[in-house]
Amino acid sequence: MSAIIENSPSPVAVTPSRAYNRRASLAVLCAGTLMTVLDGNIVTVAMPAIQSDLGFSGPGLAWVVNAYLIAFGGLLLLVGRLGDLVGRKRMFTAGLAVFTAASVLAGVATTQGLLIAARALQGAGGAMASAVVLGMLVALFPQPREQARAIAAFSAVGSAGGALGTFLGGALTQALNWHWIFLINLPIGVAAWLAAVRVLAPERGAGLGKGADYPGAALVTGALMLTVYVIVGAGGRTPAATALLAALALALFTAFTLRQARTARPLLRLRLFRSRVLTGANAVQMLMIATMYGFQFIGALYLQRVLGYGALATGTAFLPAPVAIGLLMLGLSARTVARYGGYRVLLAGLVLIAAGMALLSRVPVHASYAADVLPPLLLLSAGFAAAMPALTGLAMSGAREEDAGLASGLFNTTQVVGGSLGLAVLSTLAASRTGGLLDRGAELIPATAEGYRLAFRVATGIAVAALVAAGAVLRPGSR
User: Fold this and answer.
1) Residues of the chain with CATH 1.20.1250.20
2) pLDDT of residue 399
3) 13-212+267-474 maps to which CATH number?
4) Residues of the chain above pLDDT 70, percent
């Protein structure tokens, strides 16, 4: 028997085998995404063990994270466009292979240089696999209801994977050692690659001759890498050096934009930014991710440095987040978007995120997890579970089919830039506030707690700004 897709403009028959292949393809894409998302977060709880084992200095240790972020964020836009040209399946499977090989290198690393190099290679592989996923999902599920369900499943994996990585990082580090946070990717990566080769439908792509603007690629990749480098390393440089690097990044972006406007075969079609919904969704996402990413790191530090939690206890404390996000996204998100529309669901989610951050800004020094930490954690999880799929659907609806890979890469790029920016700003504010209080004679733990509360207050303001921007730019009548 065959089924008929609901709400299709003309009835399209879908055989059971085709439906199965699409579900299998969705599972493969989600599995690859989960592996890269987990590894972007799993390392945070293991940082003290890595520092002790390899003898990193404080500033040097930051490069275990920064090397990944710079390569990942800098390459997303380029590999997203290349996925449109050479075929998204090829780019996805190549990314899985590079990421898995780099994970093994990181797992066996015994020197600082090898670990940092392996993390940069992981970032490159993660970018290759992640940049084309949304474009593949849109092509696999063109009908609105099915697409909403697929995006909800993808968003659930990506969103819950971040918090789950914190738990797994603590568990593996405490039960075995930090090497296993990387080595565990070997069996997962091999299985995901084999499944992707077998299940994903082949595609030819437009061909490199249709848009291989190599000078433009060099300009935008350099600009994005330098931007992420400026953000994640701002605390270790003088203001003058940071301003100079930021000016250089801006100059590279300007040169890239001018080239794209004049070249016959641009890497990035500037018409993409004429879509108000696509541009607005990326701007809103940058603010929302800045809030959530900052909370994830500042919240973990609060539990460890103020409440005295260990690595495993910190990971366990965050565990309700991926559970709540997964259940809500898979169980309710697609249906609520289909019933009320992405715009309304997005606004409701942003309201919950702002409320959760506002509650966190009041956490006391001697907090109770059940009374002071868990309620805002669940509010943030519910808000993100509502907002992220709705925002993703809005963003991808603003791109043409031939630009789907590029739009996917752009959406992922704003995630990295927003997360890096939020982390840099909020952690700097917290450290500055704590340092000022210590200089005036305050005790360490109360001063540290007040620094984190300031960061949470600023994050609340960023969430409110995202809500206002979404209401102004993404309102259906204003598009």
Assistant:
1) 13-212+267-474
2) 59
3) 1.20.1250.20
4) 82
